[in-house]
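From the thread on structure requests for the teaching lab: each student submitted one protein with a one-line request. Submission from student K.M.:

"Model L-serine dehydratase from Fodinicurvata halophila, C-alpha cells only."
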Amino acid sequence: MTVTLEDISKAAEGIAGEIVRTPVVPAARLSETLGCDLHLKLENLQYTGSFKDRGACWKLLNLGAEQSHKGVIAMSAGNHAQGVAYHANRLGIPATIVMPEFAPFSKVERTRSYGARVVQTGETIDASAQAAREIGEAEDLTFVHPYDDPLIIAGQGTIGLELTRDIADADCVVVPIGGGGLISGIATAIKAFNPATEIIGVETELFPSMYQAVNDQPATSGGTTLADGIAVKSPGKLTRAIIENLVSEILLVDEGSLETAVHYLVERQKIVAEGAGAAGVAALFAHPERFQGRKVASIICGGNIDVRLLSGVLARGLIRDGRVVRLRIEIIDQPRQLAKLSEVIGAAGGNIIEVYHQRLFADVPAKRADVDVVVETRNIEHVQEIISALANAGFQSRALSTRSVDGGI
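Reply posted by the TA:
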C-alpha cells in the first residue's frame, strides 16, 4: 500500500477549515547567517502546536460510526497525543492516550486538558506502544498510529500541497524525520508537482533510525535528545519505502546544532520551536555547504517546548556566543579589591550580573581569593577586551564558561 497525490488532495479537501492553513515566511536574518534563501513553514501555529493536527484530524474523520462510538487509542510522548486528543474531543470521539513515564509534565497535562484519558506507562516508547496495543485490543478501540498509516501520511502531506502553492520554486525542502510520516507525505506531494525539488530528511545523531534502516546499518538509537519529538527507535515500514524512493538524503545533526537552531529561531526570527521542530534549521547549521546559495524551505514542525527548557537553551546560547561569561579572577584578600575589579569591568563595558567570592574552598594561598564574576558582554571579542583590561590592572583572570575565549572550556 502506498500514498498518492490523489489521497493527499482528498485529505486537503477533508480537513480544510478543521486545521490551520499555516504560512510560509522568509527567514531573512537566518538566510544571511547561513548563506542561503531560507523560508519556514510554521506548523508550530497549529492549534495544538504541531503538524500532528493534520494527520490526526484526517484519520479521525475517516472512522466508521461504530469505531467513533467505541473510541480510539494512541501512543505518544507529546505531539501526536495532543493532536489525537484535541480532534477526538472536538469530533465527540472518546480518546485514550498512552504516554511513556518520561513524557514532559506539560505535554501530559495539555493532553488531559483536551479531554482524553491519559495512561502513563512504559519506560520506553516501544513499551508504551505495546501497552497501547494491549489496551486497544482489550477495549476494542481503534489504534491511531503516529506515522505508519496511509491516512496519517496523507494528512501530513497536505503541508506539501501548501508548499507547492506558496513557494513553488524551492530548490530543496528540509524535513525532520521521526517515524517518517511527515516527510513521506510532503515528498509525495511535492515530487508530484516538481520532481526536480530535492527532499532532504533530518534525524539526530542519537536517533538515526531511518538513516540506518535505509542504509542497511545496525540500529544504535538511544540517549537523551533535545529533539524528543523525533526520537524514534523503530521507523515505519510504509514510510521507509516512500523515503527510499523520494528522499535524496538524510542528514544527521548533533545536540549543539539543535540548541543553536532553537536559540537563533527565537532570537533572530522570533519563532518558538521545540527541538524536533528546529531540526531542519539545525541541519543547515550542521551542513551549511550543502545549502549554500540555494532556495530552501524548512518545516518548523512543532513548537511545544517546555518553558523551563527553552529558558535554559537560550541562556546556554548566550554563553556559547560569549554574551554572558563567567570569569575567575584572582585577587589579594584585602579591602577595596572587589570594588577595584568591578570598576575595571565596568570601564571596559561589561555588566556584572553575579559575584561569587571564594575564600575557603578555592585552591589559592591564604591571603588571596578567587572571585567568580558572571558578566554580560557584547560578544567573544568583548570578553577578551575585559580579560585584557583586568590583566593591565593587575588581575589575572580566565573564562570558565565560553568555548571560544583562550581555547575555552
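TA comment: The CA atoms of residues 273 and 395 lie 42 Å apart. The chain has three domains: 5-51+149-316, 55-143, 321-399.
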